[in-house]
Amino acid sequence: MSVVDSPATRRPRDPGGPQQNRVPGHAAPKRRKRDSGRTPWLLALPALLLIAGLLGYPLVRMVILSFQNMRLRELLSGRTPPWVGFDQYTRVLTDSVFWSVVGRTVAFTFVSVLVSVLFGLGIALLMRRVSRGVRLFMIVAMMFVWALPQLVAAQIFRWMTDSDFGVVNYLIDLLPGVSYQNHSWFVNPWQGWSVITTLVVWAGIPFLAITLNAGLTQVPKELLEAATVDGATAWQALRNITLPILKPLIMIVTTLSVIWNFGLFTQAWVLRDGHPEPQFQTLATYSYTQAFGQSRYSLGSAIAVITVILMLGVMIFYIRQMFRIGEVD
Amino acid sequence: MVAPAAGPAPASTAPLRRRRAKTDDGVITVGRSRSGTIAANTAGIVFGVIMLFPVYWVLNTAFKPADEVLALEPGFWPSNPTFDNFVSAFKAPLFLKDMLNGVIVTLLAVAGALVVGFLGALSIARFSFYGRKAIILVVLVVQLIPFLSLLIPLFLMLQSADLTNSLIGVSITYLVLILPYTVWTLRGFISGIPRELDEAAMIDGCTRAQVFWRIILPLTGPGLVATSVYGFIQAWNEFIIINTLNSPDKQNLMAWLLQNQTTRGTAWGPLMAGAIITSIPVVIFFLIIQRNIATGLTAGAVKG
């Protein structure tokens, strides 16, 4: 994608794209007159300076730091840390613990995104089928969940799964033949991760379901009704009409979910009391623990750099979509 | 429309069409059985109840006296409802101070982001110039960089500027955290204002600056409110940055909630009460702007 805006790169790309999306009534797309002068740059300058200073510079510094060896001694004395080349990366990449963290983070992201998107889509479809009152109830319920700060949501789950007084244990214990008294959910990593996944899915469904439901209202009902009259099953109508129309929106929400869930921090952090055991580390908590818990700032930076690189593919995909929207209007 | 329209119907639809859209809401009516509707309604209600249960459980706990909180058989209704937990949360060390800190930091960040972001948005939405694409790209890219990964250099940077353990340092950080979203969303609102209005005003003799002040700024009003409320929620909810940069007396309520859990066991009642107090502004604000939020999220792309 051409970043530099020049007449040469402006026209050929995406022929017919902008025209298609023009407001009816503007028959011929007027070519916008180019403003000369410094006004737009002056307007954008404060924002650019702040972004450069507090995002750009730290980003560069993070990369530099990952080639040094910054420990607590250098931090306190203020001396320039020694250069170590690729040592931090070699250390990280040859560490089996790191690879298990990567594997876990990827697996968690895959499962949680798959479950959330499928659930979100299912709930969105259900919202089209229920009566008005029930739909309103569903929306209100989801709004409250959505509004809760992540940290508070995680604290609630921590309380509900408490081994001694948690309501989850109590409820499961009521089932005949099951004893869950004083059951600790985080001894077994599979169970612990299922709690974390439940929390993430529960908190993620409102955004997914409500956005997808909004997308579903745009699917022409005439099409669906015609298909039904012609004898299409609900499944056929979904596969051949609804999903193709909804596809761009599904792509966007899935990408966003991947970006969010890949960076999982709060939920694992809170549910493990700020000291996640090795089997509950994600890339985000691992980098943080290495840097601020062990004072291995450079090692933490190297992990952060690798994390960003791993996410880049998904981010590029997302930015392309958004960039097109920004271009149109 | 390229952007997923989650809000009201596009402005171009006729009033008749809009009224129809309001009553039948795109729900198809052909080929649907009554038993199917009953099953769907049941499923919808079950789903809503399950979603709300954790929310209910925090309220239930917060109003229970201490002995009921730690009952081995959890009661599903506080038999002796009490405000004790809220009182002890307010009396807890640093609670009020951290609340005030949170308000200050959040307001500073939102105000700053709004001013800076509005100017930036204006430049992208209303001017066509060499480098516009580059600015759009920067705004889009930076909001996807996980801020957490920048925490290490940020910490070192603010430390050398003597801005760790200060509210100003955190405010500036939060400002930048919400800035890309602010620019992007305000851009959307500004582009929604017809250019014809600008041109008409200019023909009537307004200068470009006057057009901004008298036309664009007032018309972006609702957008400014929605954006600032969203920024408020983001900044208010943040805790990792402030928890890392500042000592306990310069925290916000989120970090307070986090630190409260480690001091010799957890006092669940007061913690849940504190969680409710912390969430109240967010929940209220969120419910106010919820109409814009789905649109804002998909079009503006924020970090969760």
Automatic annotation (TrEMBL), chain A:
Source organism, top-level taxon: Bacteria
Gene Ontology terms: cellular component: plasma membrane
Coiled-coil parts of chain: none
Membrane topology field: Multi-pass membrane protein
CDD domains referenced in this protein's UniProt entry, alphabetically: TM_PBP2 (cd06261)
InterPro entries, per database record: MetI-like, MetI-like_sf, UgpAE/MalFG_permease
Record localization: Cell membrane
TM helices/strands, residue ranges: 40-60, 106-127, 134-157, 190-212, 249-270, 297-319
Keywords: Cell membrane, Membrane, Transmembrane, Transmembrane helix, Transport
Stretch list, region Disordered: 1-35
PANTHER family registered for this protein in UniProt: BLL4140 PROTEIN, DIACETYLCHITOBIOSE UPTAKE SYSTEM PERMEASE PROTEIN DASB
Protein name listed in UniProt: N,N'-diacetylchitobiose transport system permease protein
Species this chain originates from: Paractinoplanes brasiliensis
Automatic annotation (TrEMBL), chain B:
Biased composition range(s): Low complexity: 1-15
Keywords assigned: Cell membrane, Membrane, Transmembrane, Transmembrane helix, Transport
Record region (Disordered): 1-23
GO cellular component: plasma membrane
Pfam families registered for this protein in UniProt: BPD_transp_1
GO biological process annotation, one example: transmembrane transport
Membrane topology term: Multi-pass membrane protein
Residue stretches making up the ABC transmembrane type-1 domain: 99-289
Transmembrane spans: 38-59, 99-122, 134-156, 168-190, 211-233, 267-289
Subcellular localization(s) per the UniProt record: Cell membrane
Domain of life: Bacteria
SUPFAM superfamilies, A to Z: MetI-like
PANTHER family registered for this protein in UniProt: INNER MEMBRANE ABC TRANSPORTER PERMEASE PROTEIN YCJP, MALTOSE TRANSPORT SYSTEM PERMEASE-RELATED
Protein family according to the UniProt entry: Belongs to the binding-protein-dependent transport system permease family.
Record protein name field: Carbohydrate ABC transporter membrane protein 2 (CUT1 family)
Organism placement in taxonomy: Bacteria, Bacillati, Actinomycetota, Actinomycetes, Micromonosporales
